[in-house]
Specification:
Number of helices: 7
Distance between the termini: 34 Å
Shape: elongated
Largest sheet: 3 strands, antiparallel
Helix content: 55-70%
Strand content: 5-15%
Number of strands: 3
Amino acid sequence: MIEEIVSSEGFFINDKKTKISGTRKRKDVTGLVVSVDKVGVGRQEYRRMRTEIYNMQTKDESKLPQINGWLAYIKSVDIANYHRLIKYIQKLRGKTDNDVVFSEMLCLNEKTNPRKSALKPHFTNQVSNDFIGRL
């Protein structure tokens, strides 16, 4: 049935790129884990980020820009894991002597509550209406 619809629209299905997955199987699409109700970075990536944050704090401060970038990426695709990482960073902050790194972490320098800022629209209604009007 799907093949008929696709071919009737003038397209074809590339069998080399097609994969059928059951409901219990992990679905990885372009590095993101896709489930029925959400998209996220996945458990392995979350654990890797925790490790990187800890190593940066204890051993290698030069990774700060890279970690700031990854945190911004995770915030854009998986807000729940982002908040878990922020809590972890704040927990580490009290346990280590190196507070210089924490003062330079962008996620800790946000002036607004990260949960509230994640809910704010990126464009005001006027800007988005003007943009849509030009289309």
